[in-house]
Structures are given as C-alpha cells and as structure tokens.
User: What shape does this take?
Amino acid sequence: MRINKDHLYHGAALTQIAEHPEFTAINAFKIEGVACRSAFKVNDDIGAYLKYATKPTRPFGEYVFTFHASHLRELGELVKRVSSVFLVLVCVKDREICSFHYRDFKRLVERRRVAKGSDEEQYTLLVAAPKGRSLRVYVNAPGQRRMILGDEILIPRSAFPNVLFRRERTAQQAYSADAVGS
Assistant: This one.
C-alpha cells in the first residue's frame, strides 16, 4: 500500500494520542460506510480532526490550514456522533501539534463570517509558532493579510494530546493548566 503524506504527518499525532495513558482505541471515522481521511474516533467518544501543513508561509511565518465545504461537512457529522471534537493541526517544520476544541474553531469561523457578512466556500485558519512561546491560532480579516480578526487563541505547546482527554474542563482551562511561557 502506498504511503501518502497524510499517513506520515497524521501518524505523528495519532502516535502521541495512542501513547496517552487514557487512550483505549482509535478508529477511522466513517460517513455512509466510507472512511474520512482526516477524522478519527478516539476512545469511542472523542473526535479528532487532523490536518497538516509542511512549512510556514513567507513572509509572515504562518502555517495555513484551509477548511473546504467537504471538511466542514465531515466535522459536522463528527460532532453529531461523539461527545467532544478537537482539531489537531500538525505544523511539520516546527514539529508541533496545535490542538483545540471544535467550539473554538466554530468561534473563529463565525468571527470571519460576521466580518465578511456572508458564508464563504472555505475558511482558513492560521497558526503561528513563535520560538519559546505558545502557538497562536487566528483568522485574518476579510481581504487583508496579517490583519488578525479578534483575539488569537493561545495554545501551549504542551497541550497535545492531554487536551483531548480533559473533557471535564473547558479547553481554555486545560490550556491554562499546561501554559508555560505564553
């Protein structure tokens, strides 16, 4: 079987999930019997939606993660079938994994939708990985580069994979508990 890039880069995240002490199982998420390449069920009640970017763009040094309508549909189905869903964004060159709760993703998408005044065919999340500091997730203002729309979400580099298994707390509380050098 051919090894695709997503096998390699998703594998980095899936291995860390599987090594977590609370891990019991991982399965491909299926819609109408077809496995989604980016969606996984962890321990039967946690959804993990994986994407990767190999290197940050120039000149801003941001990893770009684009979510097309098909990705949004997969996420919508995943949300219906598990108790919590997390986005897991693999930043390959920096060897970092940025993970946060789906509700934070929805907030960013809604912020962008409101600023644009309409839905878009795709949404782009940007992740910055400044040396020695927390990861930053944000969206740009419509029609503007490097004009961050609203506040960045700060994600401690140590949050993944623990954040997936800390469902009793909000994502922000889990990040705060792990935060070092924001």
Residues 5-173 form one domain. The longest strand covers residues 34-42. Residues 102-116 form the longest helix (15 residues). The chain has a mean pLDDT of 88.
